[in-house]
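User: Some background: our group keeps a shared notebook of sequences we're curious about, and every so often someone picks one and asks for a predicted structure to add to the entry. Today it's my turn. The entry only has the sequence so far, pasted here. Could you supply the structure so I can complete it?
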Amino acid sequence: MNVLVDTSVWAGHFRHRNTTLTKLLLSDRVLTHPMVVAELACGTPPSPRAQTLSDIGLLEPANQASIAEVRILIEQEKLYVLGCGLMDIALLASTLITPGAVLWTFDKRLAKLAERFNIHYSGPKQ
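Assistant: Of course. Here's the predicted structure to add to the notebook entry:
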């Protein structure tokens, strides 16, 4: 099982080291997504900033759902008006099309959706 790590988990890890994330990284089980890296770039990743973003970008990528696939998922599963935005649903869709992947997020609404699809990583709370 590989874990697509959401921005919320990375941001928490940057503030206070998350031992579960560290263990997943050391066992090469963390997946990334370009939208997560871009969202992290909007914030303040640890110094050296460019190196941190580059290192996260080098992790194994999850399959990327296209916008068309995301829109189909939204309509088929009635994922509208649930408080999740495009990036959240794109990560959900990408996890769904990545064999053996689960999604780790601290965002309650996204976690609830991931649970609905049985792809939520329920690692220890930090």
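Suggested note for the entry: The CA atoms of residues 33 and 100 lie 15 Å apart. The chain has a mean pLDDT of 95.
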